[in-house]
Amino acid sequence: MTFSELNLSEEILQAVTEMGFEIPSPIQEQAIPHLLQGLDVIGQAQTGTGKTAAFGIPALEFIDVTNRAVQTLVLCPTRELAVQVTEEIKRLAKYKRGVTVDTVYGGDSIERQIRSLKKGCHIVVGTPGRVMDHMERRTLKLDQVKMIILDEADEMLDMGFREDIENILLDVPKERQTVLFSATMSKPIMAMTQKFQRNPVLVKVVKKELTNVNIEQLCFEVKQSAKVEVMCRLIDAYDLKLLLVFCNTKRKVDEVVESMKMRGYAAEGIHGDLRQTQRTQVMAMFRSGKAPILVATDVAARGIDVTGVDAVINLDLPLDEEYYVHRIGRTGRAGLMGKAFTLVGKDEKYRLRQIQEFTKVRIEKGVIPSFEDIVGVRKARFISKITESIQGGDLELYDDMLTSLQHEGFSTDQVVSALVKMSLGLQRSDFAESDLAWEDRRDFKNDRGGRRDDRPAYGQRDDRGGSSYGRRDDRPAYGQRDDRGGSSFGRRDDSRPAYGQRDDRGPRRETGPRGATGEAGMVRLFVSVGRRDRVRPNDIVGAIAGEANIPGKVIGSIDIHDEYSFVEVPERDVKSVITAMNGNTIKGVEINIEVAK
To answer: Does domain 3-207 have CATH number 3.40.50.300?
Structure first.
């Protein structure tokens, strides 16, 4: 099927052709006809399958440009995804004269958004928290909405936005088209579809399309301390020009960026602690090639959609198998070949097995390039550049420089070698002569059996009473049970139960007195809203998760009093939460938030 067979307007077909699309993706081919008929649709699709156009094209076809009211509302979990969706819809609407699209999200000036909304717009794309904020201020009116779209609904529920989403759905007219896209069909998602959709049609991308056949997937067994070194060698060996590097924590992102800059690589990082202006600046540098290496966390990477990414490197293995699919799906797009390299520490090999079982793809083991390999690669490229420069001519301008250096007593060979050294920028490090893999491959080849080094097994105590855990804390391995009987499956950051769920230590407490320090690793914050402001635990979770870009499930105990509340957040996220929330609003009330005294 081609786009011309979908009965689209000439304006949309012209925009689609200009964007370089010839045939619709599977999710577009299945969803667009149903949406054009006005039916409610549930779309099960991963990132990178073209779902934005799947709902964006029908939305644009239904817009009445003579009516300046909001006619379509799109809800997204993060500001990055909201911006990406807005840009995509604007490209599709290029030839639909008079159609206006606006974005509302936390971290951006709400006064600017109010001014823009007052001018009138047809399509609003936003995060649930900021949409609710505008609704309570009466700066966003939804009484004429004909279509509402929930993009990445599962992610929004994970971030604690369920109550906001339900309130928004109850506020829009009942006679509307409700469209829901989600990577998974969990029980909460199905409950929401049953409550708010009318006889929805289910369209889905089959599981075999989860991993792109255009992506070469390799894993490298690497010592934890040598991961950055190995990554740099892979960049040189494969001559990667534009790549995404994924880490599991914000701290790791900062450490990796600093380390790569010290090695001479143009890298930038993106995570939840960055302000929107910083995010925009970093993404502009990445897209333009000024910073061709982007190091990111999974949450911050939501919405990053850049064509021409040579490779994705998993410096940390994701804690969720589906995140692996999301990560590598950012390369190998539009029919181009891509690469996905995963650096596996010794304590991560079980997670690699889980990923392979989930994707039904065997990830082959790669060989770590040696220091000598990298020297050889750089020499070859340097010789190629010299050849091009000689063939380009105009060398007589520099003849006197060689003569001057020879008068200083240096031979031509010494001058050339010094110039090569300066250009290559290679210096022997502690890793140059060492084996960076966590297996001794010589023993492996000789099939000697037994352990390949003298370290204790992962998590076992050695003769000195120490432990070989490669983690920064004493959490159980992913998916393993700890001494308390709990399990760490599906948790992105810590071993806390999901928000509002029970663990083996008893029920989650939402009210009642707490100690000033709370649980270990958690910090108690004071929030200047309470029961009198009609605030509930979900309001606080949704606001913090949305504005500070942290998963709702990592937020701890919440105590709500008449005029104020207390909320526990992980110690590592305190700064970003306070920065993001101060001066922001919950239930339309401007708040003050600080560490509880």
So the answer is: yes
